[in-house]
TrEMBL record, chain A:
CDD domains the record matches: TM_PBP2 (cd06261)
Subcellular location: Cell membrane
Record's protein name: Sugar ABC transporter permease
Ranges annotated as spanning the membrane: 31-56, 89-110, 131-152, 182-203, 233-255, 291-310
UniProt keyword terms in alphabetical order: Cell membrane, Membrane, Transmembrane, Transmembrane helix, Transport
UniProtKB/TrEMBL annotation, chain B:
Transmembrane segments: none
Name recorded for this polypeptide: Extracellular solute-binding protein
PROSITE patterns in the cross-refs: TAT (PS51318)
UniProt entry keywords in alphabetical sequence: Signal
PANTHER family according to UniProt: ABC TRANSPORTER SUBSTRATE-BINDING PROTEIN, ARABINOSE-BINDING PROTEIN-RELATED
Family: Belongs to the bacterial solute-binding protein 1 family.
Predominant subcellular localization, coarse grouping: periplasm
Pfam family of the protein (one): SBP_bac_8
Organism: Neoroseomonas terrae
Amino acid sequence: MAADGSLAVSAASGTGRASSLERFARRRSTIAFLMTLPLLVVVIGLVGYPAAYGIYLSTLNRRMTGFMEGDWLPTGLGNFEILFDSDTFWMVVWQSCIFAISAVLLKALIGFWLAHMLHHIPTKGQRKWRGMLLVPWVIPPALSTLGWWWMFDPSYSSINWILNIFAVPAVPWLGEPWWARASVIIVNVWYGAPFFMIMYLAALKSVPEQLYEAAAIDGATSWQRLRYVTLPMMANIISITVLFSLIVTFANYDIVRVLTNGGPRDLTHVFASYAFQVGILSSNIPRGAAVSLFMFPILAVCAFFVLRGVTRRNKEQM
Amino acid sequence: MSRNGITRRNVLRNGAGVVAAGALSAPMVHAQGTGGTLRCGFWDHWVPAGNGIMRELCAEWGRANRVEVNVEFITSVGNQNLLTINAQAQSRSGHDILSFPTWEPAAKHELLEPMDDVMGRLAQKYGEVTPAAEYLGKVGGKWVAVPAVSGTQLKPSCTRFDLMQQHAGLDMRAMWPAKAERGPGADGWTWEAFAAAAEKCKAAGVPFGLPMGQFSDAVDWVGGLLTSYGANMMDARGNPTIRNNAKLRQAVEMLVRISRALPDDVWAWDDASNNRALISGRSALVFNPPSAWAVAKRDQPQVAENCWYAPCPAGPEGAYVGYLPYFWGIWSFSRMKPAAKGLIEFLSERPQAERQTNTSSGYDIPPFLSMSDFRIWETEGPPTGFAYNYPVKPHQNQKTSVAFAPAPAEFAVQAYNNGLNTKLIARIVQGGESIDQAMGWVERELNTIRRGG
């Protein structure tokens, strides 16, 4: 490669003008740009443009005829100002955090436990169990949530029917606020735990067996093996999986929409379901866009800390 | 050839001229007509035959007017119709005619073709339009969409007359017979009597199936009760009218009383839960169009045979029934406005309206009060005549109501979709708040809605 980054051109190639064009086309940076162009187009078209348009929408007034004026925030940020003053919105922020954090923690714990269980099953039987445990994750969530909704149905819950057989009183799964929140989290955990399981299983399989052997020689207990061998070796994958799941769970829409529609009394709304209610159902698209944009700073802060941890660990290992 | 004065050059020149003239003057020729293609997106009807009749009527009109009419049906399941409306409004492209649910004409009025001419001609022929349709379909005194027949529903009392007689001592068939008169006891059909009946039916194990969540069935019946007490939450200028509102307090107290006589799980009910309560035989009364009866007729005929419609109970300021209309609107960016107006006018005329209502077993409600005498409501059954009092008729002294009217539509739609009226009651009954606390909350919410339009 030449000093300017172009590839060596072997044969004499026509006029000077043609050769400079040819050189430009053969530069590595040009080829790299051209090859990444399709991906760039997809990212800009499907991520960049909608995000920018969402930000633009959030600055408009309800009729989308001009920028939204604020009392104490600058023009264009009026929708955010109104949200700051809304009891319901702060309740949604609080609920989104409860929902996402508790669901991700439960998914991580259950996924970790399942991965350990599977890891200790012989390979032949493991495949069968792995397949079965992945089923919740491969069913479209809107469909599986509908099944859960039937089980939680306020009047005809099949779970309550079973509970009644054992003389346990019926549970108001979707009618009482804390039960409704628990129901939404249960369904999210049921759906998302297999993803953690499969990621952690892959991570477990990549931990060198020699480390466990060395630990065993040193007389480490099983808890110490887990604490000082398994967890440090899996730390990066745990961090990345938690971050990814946090983003997806924060943005969850279908489970809340199908199961509770945000009720009772808005006590199960999360950002996405509330944004849909405000933006589409109530014909206030700019305010709905402002609600959904609220996820961004929260997730950006989480992503910053998680990725900083990953980078630091990588440097330590190098 | 040149010997006859016909040169190759002349032939080519003349030929090109003929082809050009033909191409320029030719009308837009489509499959069956010469009037272009009209694209319609109608609501996907709950009653399967409801789509068939719309297709049939459009084809008839298309043949008569030499216009090709493409008809699509857009479901409201998962709010698909709302997503379609918003997508088309954003992209300024799509159908020519769309079915707009309750609040959408007001929300999209700047993008809708004025329909005063069509409504003027229809009103001349058929008279007065139901007031709730006027509130929703008129913006700034101008019609922005035409109240549709297909999909428009009312939510009066669909009672189990056997259970009401047995447990509440009310003979609903005698009170509201299948003829244009009020029977004995009809004047006593008030919210007081209703609450007493609800308490008796709950004690008997067949409570009234009235949802109290934030779906439209819940918001509509609670809105009707509030209106019948003259209890508005917001005035026509958009000012909250919560503070020191004695009528609102009185209505809230009545709603609290009624909601304590409902099943414990009504706070989580959706629009299908009340249907199921009636169909399963667990409930003595629901507020619903005849769709629940239609399913019961198929699956639980013994339940359907005991159903009977009555108007909504009256409050101090009259009886108001929940009204949930669809509208037919034309996008301002449509290129087929005259044809679209012609089709909408055709669909709204009495013979076509009656065919739509007949096909939907009486479900569809035309917007003109003069059309409340279709035969289907007298003949549909069993029991024959059960739906006679489903539409609003003069002898009922009942009016249509839209929750949160007379607030400006851009505020009312937000309060409606947030279910502020049902949440107000839920905060008291389920959340344990005092009436003052709950009313303070709803006032703050209305102020939030009002800010920024």
